[in-house]
Design brief:
This protein is of the alpha+beta class. A hairpin with a 2-residue loop joins strand 5 and strand 6. The protein is globular, with a radius of gyration of 25 Å. The chain binds thymidine-5'-triphosphate (TTP) and magnesium ion. The site of thymidine-5'-triphosphate has 14 residues, from strand 1, helix 1 and strand 3.
């Protein structure tokens, strides 16, 4: 089955954060980077500064000549890292399958979230909205059926873009693309391509695989495929979240069953919301509690079918609670987890899911 991959990339990441945190920088050319006098380079520039020709990796000295009235600031990596973490949390609330590429960009496999009623594009828009609500920062997204096309798409309408590359427009986009913009084509390769009269995707498309391999070695095959919209959709995911759990610590030790069960019911519904969002269901329910002497007790149970509804989770949690809770012992923490997760349903996707 064909996958649905989203590539998300924050707009002018460092510079946008500086503008967010310093309202007087907004709407102005902001350049984040090393010292202007000596060897420093530009990390990034706001879109206002880019109009002057300033860009990443340019010596700050050069930037200063192009844009003498710009606001030059030193990077605050701690802040950027904590924002990056917030973004990552948003991604993980949509999919287990997230491959971060740097602080401000990642691939997400959202195949399981797409249906007739819910397009991949609407999922991307929701993610961008959530990022904005959480961080007050804008991002751009690209949606396609493999990774490199999703990445190309996210760069097509920056800033605040949401761009889909599907089977109906892929060749048109690739053929018109300057050869230097193809992923994997650096400065040196670009020059060689041009000397071979390959200026864009259409020129590249005209070459045989064997000829490309002769000129560019192994990379020739990859370029041959890239000219045709073929690429991998497998994410490199090292950490897969295999369970969803919620817990509450009480202000003081509690021994009121009615009250504790009410909390447990709320937690069950929160777990359900999280599972629902990612279209997952699980086969094992675990209840955990900590007694007043900080000892942890857990009890788990296998369900007959994968479950995800709040009431179902609570049904199991209710029984488990009565098995694990000692009547005389007050507790200070209660939690419920659903694990052994699986995707709720698969269906075949078609080109129409993109539209
Ligand atoms: P990018 O995503 O490449 O750039 P950007 O987010 O600033 O702008 P946009 O995506 O809208 O084109 O890089 C993310 C951050 O990484 C960037 O804000 C600063 C840092 N960075 C460097 O420090 N040096 C570099 O050469 C590049 C390219 C980025
Ligand atoms: Mg970016």
């Amino acid at each position: 089955m064909e996958k649905r991959i989203i590539h998300i990339d924050m707009d002018a990441f460092y510079a946008q954060i500086e503008q967010r945190d310093h309202p007087d920088y907004r709407g102005k050319p902001v350049i984040v980077g090393g010292r202007s006098q000596s060897r420093g380079v530009v990390a990034t520039a706001s879109y206002e500064a880019r109009k002057f020709g300033v860009h990443s990796a340019m010596p700050t000295r050069t930037a200063y000549k192009l844009c003498p009235d710009g606001i030059y600031v030193r990077p605050r990596f701690d802040v950027y890292k904590s924002v990056s973490k917030e973004i990552m949390d948003v991604f993980l609330s949509y999919s287990e399958l997230v491959e971060p590429l740097s602080l401000d960009e990642a691939y997400l496999d959202i195949t399981h979230l797409v249906s007739r009623e819910r397009t991949a594009k609407s999922v991307a828009l929701n993610i961008q909205r959530d990022i904005f609500e959480k961080t007050h920062l804008t991002s751009s997204s690209g949606i396609s059926y493999n990774k490199y096309l999703a990445k190309i798409a996210s760069g097509m309408n920056k800033p605040k873009g949401t761009t889909v590359i599907h089977h109906g427009n892929v060749m048109e986009i690739l053929k018109a693309m300057p050869i230097g913009k193809f992923p994997g084509v650096g400065r040196v390769t670009e020059e060689k391509m041009k000397s071979l009269k390959i200026f864009n995707g259409e020129d590249l498309h005209g070459w045989d695989e064997a000829d490309l391999v002769r000129e560019f070695g192994k990379r020739g095959s990859s370029l041959y495929r890239k000219a045709r919209g073929i690429g991998t959709s497998e994410l490199n995911v090292d950490r897969v979240r295999k369970s969803v759990g919620k817990e509450t610590t009480f202000d003081h030790d509690v021994n009121d069953d009615e009250y504790i069960l009410k909390v447990l019911e709320e937690l069950s519904h929160k777990v359900s919301e999280n599972l629902d969002r990612r279209q997952f269901a699980g086969r094992v329910v675990t209840v955990k509690l900590k007694t007043h002497d900080y000892k942890t007790h857990t009890k788990q149970m296998m369900t007959t079918n994968p479950i995800f509804k709040g009431d179902e989770i609570f049904h199991y949690a209710y029984n488990l609670y009565h098995e694990v809770k000692e009547p005389e012992e007050p507790i200070r923490l209660i939690g419920v987890t659903v694990s052994h997760l699986e995707e709720r349903s698969y269906r075949n996707l078609t080109i129409y899911d993109f539209l």
